[in-house]
Amino acid sequence: MTESISALAARLARLPRVVAVVLGGSRATGTARPDSDWDLGVYYRGAFDPAGVSALAGTTGYVSELGEWGPIMNGGAWLTVDGLAVDVLYRDLDAVERWTREAHAGRFEILTQNGYLAGAPTYLPAGELALCRVLQGEPPRPAFTKALAAAAQGRWEGRAGVSLMFAGIHADTGDAVACLGMLAHATLCAAHARLAARREWVLNEKRLVTRAGLDETQRLLGAPGDLRDAVAAVARVLGAEPLQARAP
Fold it and tell me: Which CATH superfamily is domain 3-100+131-136 in?
């Protein structure tokens, strides 16, 4: 933990309505690369105002409004602090605690969320709290219950089966993009199911396939050797530019 990150966490904790600040992502789980971002979760109750984040001196970047990034990732900021890439993530603790209570009983929803192909389960924020490193405050530390493991495994396996069915339909019509998309969706759902059975939290889809032991699908789906080139090539065909969190 650098002094600048610790100082930023302390300043975030002093914003109105904020009750806790945590370090999340790869920096908290010990899987970070040297160039990994620093993820700071800001937990608040009530009417949190993102303007407080914008007003932090010595930072540059983009600050979102509440709800801008989706129902689970309900907003945040991409900042550069003393040359370090920092992601600030807003978390409504009342909503997180409500989702956590439901998850403990084996109930959850899978919501459409930016950056998630298979969708984001509403137990994801509970996993963030379970795996994070607390910097300020005393947030709850949820457990992955047996009820959640059983419900999540069955739910994700069912979704994988449905996607495989539609992959076959698209294969019959020669629609490669739709077929491969459904196969990718099925693989991610199956990976979720495997990790749920092991009662392991999933926070995002990064390296999810590898964690689940499903790397053979990479070859079967014809992953190109240089995925960065593939992204650029498809972007050219679509006439679209990939969003950049920060200026290169």
Answer: Beta Polymerase, domain 2 (3.30.460.10)
